Amino acid sequence: MRDVPWLRTAAASLVVCVAGGALFWYGSDGFRALTTEQARRRAIAHSPRVLPVVALEDQDGRPFTLGDYRGRPVAVDFVYTQCQSICPLLSAGFQRLDRAERSRPAGRQLQLVSISFDPRDTPARLREYASHYDADGRAWRFARVRDTRDLAALLGAFGITVISNGRGDFQHNAAVHVVDGHGRLARVLDMGAPPAEVARAVATNARREPRVSSR
Q1: Would you say 143 and 58 are in contact if contact means Cβ atoms under 8 Å apart?
Q2: In which band, very low, low, confident or very high, does the pLDDT at 31 lie, cut at 50, 70 and 90?
């Protein structure tokens, strides 16, 4: 049988496509999750993740941990006060969420915590930044990690990647993180998720007791 170059190339391409498809099927949870991030979010929704106990300090200098919210769901995001790109969008989304919670006829069900990963963010800086969004320091607190040695563990648990450009700015991913009443990371939603979507996620999680993951 005569060797046909185009046929040989087509056959090789087919092998690559089949192998790639198999790997994609395995890595994307059977095509149900199209990206690694979607797969991670599915895993967390199925098995809420235990969070490390990390000491925080809010804009008024008060110490606390996310564990102090046991019994109440909390929405958490990560920002820094000098950010000029994604953080204002995150904070504007949390402001809408805060206003929606304030107006709930049955009373507030969700607390908000915005955590800075920038060691330059003192309580005074956080307080000034919070004032732009009417964060009251109670139902919505801005905070920093008290011991920077604990920061990596906290960011890792939430799946936040922070890359410094060496000039005081950072690149980082962003999302709305729902921590359930047991102190576990239970859902990860898109940045800017509308209040109704966040409320549905909180309600859905409250109706079930999913398995717990420490990964």
Answers
A1: yes
A2: low
Strand partners for 114 = 77, 142
Q: Which CATH architecture has domain 49-206?
A: 3-Layer(aba) Sandwich (3.40)
pTM: 0.80
Which amino acid, residue 198?
A: V
Where are the chain's structural domains?
Answer: 1-32, 49-206
SS3 43: helix
Confidence of residue 1 (pLDDT cuts 50, 70, 90): very low
- The secondary element (H helix, E strand) that includes residue 186 is strand 184-190
Q: What does the angle CA 196 – CA 114 – CA 203 come to, to the nearest 5 degrees?
A: 30
The residues that bridge with 49 in the sheet, in sequence order, are 185, 213
